[in-house]
Amino acid sequence: MTPGAAPSTTVVDVDTPAGPARVHVTRPRGARGLAVLGHGAGGGLGSVDLTAAATALTGAGWAVALVEQPWLVAGRRIAGPPKTLDAAWIPVVNALRCRGGALATVCGPLLLAGRSAGARVACRTADTLGADAVLCLSFPLHPPGRPERLRATELALVTDADRAIAVVQGERDPFGGPGEVAAYLPGLGTGRQHLYAVPGTHAIPRSSAALVGLVVVAFASTVLASTVG
Fold it and tell me: Which of 4, 23, 110, 171 is the most buried (most CB within 10 A)?
């Protein structure tokens, strides 16, 4: 790669118990950590917040892997159940690990991330995969209009383990606004748990992309500082 050139992206299919997943891997020169990002149940890697996060992380020196779940690769319109999503996600991340992974990227901290349903997958698998941190974009705390159907136990899987976590949430998200999410991040202000409110609903608008990128880089910098000597 010539100085100043943009890092190239490699697209590879990875076999999983649910069928092949598709991984878009971007490795900047001298990458200091690995960030693996998953999409939501609506499918696709083109959401504003997911794109902004991936771009910002690459620019901050992280190797970034964007993962298309097998159901999306197969052309289906509906995501599988949580156990199926997790079972597909785990071998993809393991393939990217620096020791023994078929797609080995870099050694360094592992940041699991995702948007909406992808954020839930990241939370549920963080312990199994030994993640250093979790980034949740538009975490769906509950279905719209159904606050009694909480998914807060998934956030607790991260916070109870004292694993670093950041949630980037639209100010008017019907799946749970920042104030609702804050109630399930008991360590806010300790340096391990972060909540960033940005203009938008569950779908973050393009006008908020730059802000999403800024807060994601800020969080990623704290992860690097706490894990890399």
Answer: 110
